[in-house]
Amino acid sequence: MGHGKVYLAPAAHYGDALLDALDGLVSGTFNVQVERMSPKLDLAAAYSTSRHQYSAENLMAQLVNIAPGDGKILAMVDVDIFVPIFTFIFGEAQLGGKAALLSTWRLRPEVYGEAHDKALFMERVFKEAMHELGHAFGLKHCYTPGCVMNFSPTIDHVDEKGFKFCPVCTRGLQSGH
Amino acid sequence: MIDNANVRILVVDDEYSVRTSLSRWFEADGFMVDTAASAEEAMEKLSRADFNIVLLDVKLPGMDGLELNRRIHQVNQDVIVIIMTAYASIDGAVKSLKEGAFDYVCKPIDPENLTHIVRNAIETQQLQKENVRLRASVDSLLSTDFIVGESPQIKRVLEMIGQVAQTDATVMIRGESGTGKELVARAIHANSNRRYGPLVVVNCGAVTDTLLESELFGHEKGAFTGAVGSRKGKLELADKGTVFFDEIGNITEKMQLDLLRVLETKEFSRVGGSRTLKSDFRVVSATNRDLETAVREGSFREDLYFRLAVFTIELPPLRDREGDIPLLANHFLRDFATSSGKEIVDISPEAMKLIEKYPWPGNVRELRNVIERAVVVCKGGRITPDHLSFPFGYRSQEEAEESLEAVERRHIKHVLDKTGWNISKAAQVLGIDRTTLYAKIKKHGIERG
Fold first, then answer.
1. CA B313, B318, B324, B328: dihedral to nearest 10 degrees?
2. ipTM over the 0.90 cut-off
3. Which residues of chain A are within 8 Å of residue B109 when distances are taken between CB atoms?
4. What does the longest C-alpha to C-alpha distance in chain A come to?
5. What percent of chain B has pLDDT over 90?
6. Across-strand partners of B242?
């Protein structure tokens, strides 16, 4: 793992507590310098009137255009994103590429009719941010129980896994895959 | 554990975004993924590489997904096809299931649903492969290969097994004790359509009437003293398989009548039970009794005899099987040498001569026992006459015609070998002094080894 840079690009208001903790987690886990940037994403252009959701493909295309050349970018949006074939996705990343996108919309307990729970929300954001960045650093889905690279098709799956990489995925990060 | 890296998925959809989303999604899961924008392109890719799963959109330009599904299954039954459909075309998706598709998903797809279906598909395919592999290994185990012999007599038996195995006719196997009647019954079962069902052996000669009744029909709890629980009978257990009645000639008149009723209706009740049970079994029986005479004398029911002996296979005694004795002897030698881990290469010509001359009243079973004993006493190398033990008092024709001098020579050599050429001990056994023994060794030219 090199000493690269990760740009954390929140496109909504998340509060310093969440972002500061995420900065620390990302820099410590990936051994990178983390910089904050404000992404100029045109959400309206990504909105689908038929699906009432935001196109992840459109947002990813915008993200690739605005990504600085010296690192990877993780954009966080607080809208429901989709790709045409799926009902929704939590996030998307270029495998081994420079852009990763995370939707925090479906990570909110309120979406599932539950009470607001800041701690639970933060935990879910950390897990999915690490997961999408894991893809950007070249990792595929992992089946080791608890590994953050476990694929999570539902919020229950997100809650079941941890926010750390298993030893195999950690080795994968270290070797640059 | 499924290794996704070994699973190839083909995504067939005319929409570029669907192809890229799904291939990215599957690639992140470690699968090998390829895509096709039309049925024609899919056919072309399927002809060039083996895919485990095809994810197929119903609506395609030109040939539609349903037609492609049909064509795929005409060519390859093993490919798992998952249909992707919009709500409007669910009827078509259901139709495709009838034509071999594994499952369908509605667009847009719920990610959890797709994960679940793909996992099921892979597990199903692995089970199918495992099933095919197991069936192949069962088939190789259940053949007639275990009946060894090249003689015209045994070839005729194998031919008859081949003729009758595929039918549901009852078979009566007749032959002397030790000729391999149970092996033939197993070969009939193994080559029948019931081979994946059970083969249940009932030894009619070894049990009393009451016990046989409970063994065959089963019993309910409390049916008799000691019946602490209910138990299925062998006829019930043999459903979809074969029942082999060994020593059928030994059953009593009452049992003959009970059996006749069951064979006519395939219906019976457990001992102490009132429920009528049905079982679908085929009957193969064996006897070494002359049942025709028993029928004439009235000790065996004629109607039962005819029901059991729709087809009869006569097993020849070993002494009448020309050329099979050396084949069998070598076959058993290989078996026992391998299982005992001994390096015994062959049977010496002298030993083989003795084996061939012996009349084998106990047939193949006796030959098998003699070779097994020989392997136990042989330390390695080859089986010699010293390793063979025939029943006490047996003398081969050749031995009977030997001169006194030849007998003396053979006996002295035998004792010397047994005593490890300890002259004093050998002389003591032979009842002569050492000098006489030396003289006789010289006279007969007996050498060590």
1. 100
2. no
3. 85-87
4. 44
5. 32
6. B199, B282
